[in-house]
Amino acid sequence: MSLDLSKMRNIGISAHIDSGKTTLSERILFYCNRIHSIHEVRGKDGVGATMDSMDLERERGITIASAATSVTWKDHEINLIDTPGHVDFTIEVERSLRVLDGAILVLCSVGGVQSQSITVDRQMNRYHVPRIAFINKCDRTGANPYRVVHQLREKLNLNAVMMEIPIGLEDKLKGVVDLVTMEAVYFDGPNGEVIRREPIPASLATEAALKREELIDKASSFSDELMEAALSGEEISEDLIKAAVRKGTLSLKLCPVFMGSAHCNKGIQVLLDGVVSYLPDPTEVENRALDLDDNEKEIVLQPDSAMGAVVLAFKLEDGQYGQLTYIRVYQGIVRRGDELVNTRTRRKFRVGRLIKMHASEMEDIQEANCGEIAALFGIDCASGDTFCGSGLSYAMTSMFVPSPVISLAIYPKDKKSQDNMSKALNRFTKEDPTFQTYVDQESGQTIIKGMGELHLDVYVERMKREYNAEVTVGKPQVAYREAISERADFNYTHKKQTGGSGQFARVAGFIEPFTPDEDAEGLDKEYQFANEVKGGAIPTEYIPSCDKGFQQAIKRGPQLGFPIVGVKCTINDGAFHPVDSSDMAFQTAAIMAFKEAFPKAKPIILEPIMKVEIEGPTEFQGAIFGTINQRRGMIISSTEDGAITQIDAEVPLAEMFGYSTVLRSMTQGKAEFTMELDHYSKVPASVVDDLKKEFADKKK
Amino acid sequence: MFENSINGGLGRGNLGVLASRHGVGKTACLVHLATDKLFQGEHVVHVSFNGNVEHVMNWYKEVFREISEYKSLDDAFEVYNAMRANRVVMNFSQENISVDKILQSLETLIKQGSFSADTIFFDGYKLTMATEEDVRKIKEFAKAMNVEVWFSVSPIRPDVSFDEYGVPDSMKPYFNLVDVLIGLKYNDEKSKVIMTVVRDHDRNLPKPTGVALNPKTMLISE
């Protein structure tokens, strides 16, 4: 295997639903395998030629099932990493983006930049992923790649530059003009595998020259050489343009645009050339980790095989041979038999079987070099864990994990289902940090929590299919938060003298709302503690006890039993007893003091507000507006583009249950929506009363 | 100050126009007018045609930030959130969309979306390309819905000449339908954008508003 990192590309393909992501992946696999097969299985050309879409279909099943697939294109190794589409699975998207070095953004030539394209683009920006765009479906009626390029510039603010222009459009799509080499490229043969390069047809010569000028103009801001060459009117070499475009792409300041039609087998090979020419190799991307031994100091990882290994487990898969863990090596080298440490659990393990996934088979390998994507068998870990070689204790920069907003009680149908259910839950929580589960102490119910109705639905469905666990589900429950809106004082004395040693503690102070810093994480976001006790009214050793007591108190708010957030507890006075005061006594006193002050602090309830995006035919606009209005929603904007309207709104999650059914039936299934958590906001007084009543009923 | 100079505002059912050359700052000015309405607790629809809702949102954010700094608002965050709930941005990315369609969508929003709009702002509508009939329809709509309608207008055609207040002559055919017409013009000497009321309801006499804008912030500077 080649260890030349400059010939390796780790890329993902992202797109809005129905832009042809899968078809494109299929074709890439097909063309890359094809080169393999000519090489290896000579004489089976007949098989290749008659390979119909059914076979491709079967191959597709494999692409979807495997998280990462290696293919070879012109002696470059390309690792295709699967990125799921739906926002409920954002965490998975973000995790795969973390692993990618570059991406292909697929757009439909008719639909253009759609809502999901915008989301994906935003995520790519966050992880600094260089990208090239591919305008697919140029054979469709109404195809207009020029409009899509315009939208890339307008809506995504990308410095999009056309690398090709189409030869014919819609059903007359014949090929593309390569603006770098200034040749017309045609794709012959039953599967478009034969590339024919010819002079540009006369009818397109002017346009091609014009667009090439634009390309050189944009590229020359990344290369002085090119700029000089262009100004002096010299013949401009291909390499010069490619180098400049590459530089621009890597710095995220340029987005080369390719086009074609995956379905009609047009333009894919040129796109693959583009991947090789313009997307970065693993050495060109800076990756960072946190050194756990050095106060989480940020370090830049070196793609150097001589250094200690740093590996990220980015996806788990349950295969027939047990758990398959997909890894990316960021630094050093991983060999069979090496000992690695999981820095989260601090557990050591030995690397057993190490494999690489190819389109249809797995290949056993002896080692995985830095930059490579591979998979391990039989490692017990959670996805997102970092493994390190001896002596190192790094964690790959912790990814932002949003807390769940919705919960659901699930009941197994029988004993067998119960066993399977716990197996399934154990597995899912490892795979997905936004999916959590616990057993409610009071009711004994198993509760699952996640990012949305669909998110939980999918897991319930998977339990049934993959683990044979039949469960019934309860009503979804929104994860509310409780908070206070005013300062309130407390002064509480805890006294107990019923035989044995007594308990005594007095705490005084106040609670007040606070706004956390933007970069605060974990508990710091929700709670603060301050000690202003003077003159030893409370002995120093009992101060942490008070802190603990308050932390205990905020876990379950008195209004609805949900956690309390954004509260700062300050103690400024107290009293103790030389014999009867204890850690426990002060904790209890703090809990009781909090309970005393809370109702006086004008308590409020916060609810998750979702950012909802609805896309559908314009004729249903009114009906959609109506549904938002009925749901205490707020319309932010609407964008009409021909027959399609996109509506952005903010709606409380509590009102969104069952919305997909309502929307579907109202629009004859023509509208779709996505939502994600935006922020928490105060629940209106009228709704609070209902919630309180419900809570009281539940308690009975 | 601005409202005073046009006799206490535009009034419901009426059309107002901000006209200027390209790039003088009509959008900023329009967003300012809208923000002003929002501060008064009114409901506003912003109709844009440039295809990027985010741009428009950023204008509002920016203008609000400047005003809140100027007024040194304590509860800026809450005020902004309250205002956000009263504002809808409607965007039409399709080229050459008909007036009927726009009005239909607006009516849908107001009626079915139960959004009781007080003022509608058309940002960048090609009023100069519209027929007299179109403008009449918009005016009828304003009357029927009982809303104020403001336009920002700058002609794209290069052959249009501008008068001394920054109003293009291609506006002339609709003079009678427009209730308030304001010209924006950049004044080199003062480095300010000068606002002039060219037409105020039934009076055609141009008079300076006495309002000049800082071209950077678009905040009223005089």
Report on this structure.
The complex is a heterodimer of chains A (700) and B (222). By secondary structure, chain A is an alpha+beta fold. Chain A has five domains: 5-284, Rossmann fold (3-Layer(aba) Sandwich); 287-396, Translation factors (Elongation Factor Tu (Ef-tu), domain 3), CATH 2.40.30.10; 406-479, 2-Layer Sandwich (Alpha-Beta Plaits); 482-601, Ribosomal Protein S5, domain 2 (2-Layer Sandwich), CATH 3.30.230; 607-699, 2-Layer Sandwich (Alpha-Beta Plaits), CATH 3.30.70. In chain A, 31% of the residues lie in helices and 32% in strands. Chain A is built from 17 helices and 38 strands. In chain A, the strands form eight sheets. Chain A has an eight-stranded antiparallel sheet with strand order 18-17-23-14-15-22-19-20, covered by helices on one side. The radius of gyration of chain A is 30 Å and the shape is globular. Residues 35-65 of chain A have low confidence and may be disordered. Chain B has 222 residues and is of the alpha/beta class. Chain B has one domain (2-213): Rossmann fold, CATH 3.40.50.300. Chain B is built from six helices and eight strands. Chain B has helices at residues 2-5, 26-39, 53-71, 76-85, 99-111, 132-145, and strands at residues 15-19, 44-48, 87-92, 119-123, 148-153, 180-187, 192-200, 207-213. Chain B has an eight-stranded mixed sheet with strand order 3-2-4-5-1-6-7-8. In chain B, helix 2 (26-39) crosses helix 3 and helix 5 packs parallel to helix 6 (132-145). The mean pLDDT of chain B is 74. The A-B interface holds A 151, 154-155, 618, 621-623, 625-626, 628-629, 634-642, 645, 648 and B 50-53, 56-57, 84-85, 88-94, 97, 101, 105, 108-109, 111-115.
Gross morphology of chain A is globular
- The number of helices of chain B is 6
CATH class wording of the largest domain in chain A: Alpha Beta
Tell me the major beta sheet of chain A: 8 strands, antiparallel
State mean pLDDT of chain A (0 to 100 scale). Answer: 80
CATH topology of chain B: Rossmann fold
Mean pLDDT rating of chain B: 74
The CATH fourth-level homologous superfamily of the largest domain in chain A: P-loop containing nucleotide triphosphate hydrolases
Radius of gyration of chain A: 30 Å
Physical arrangement of strands within the biggest beta sheet of chain A: 18-17-23-14-15-22-19-20
**Helix percent band of chain A:** 25-40%
Reading side by side through the largest sheet of chain B, how are the strands ordered?
3-2-4-5-1-6-7-8
**Low-pLDDT segments, ≥5 res of chain A:** 35-65
- Helix percent of chain B reads 25-40%
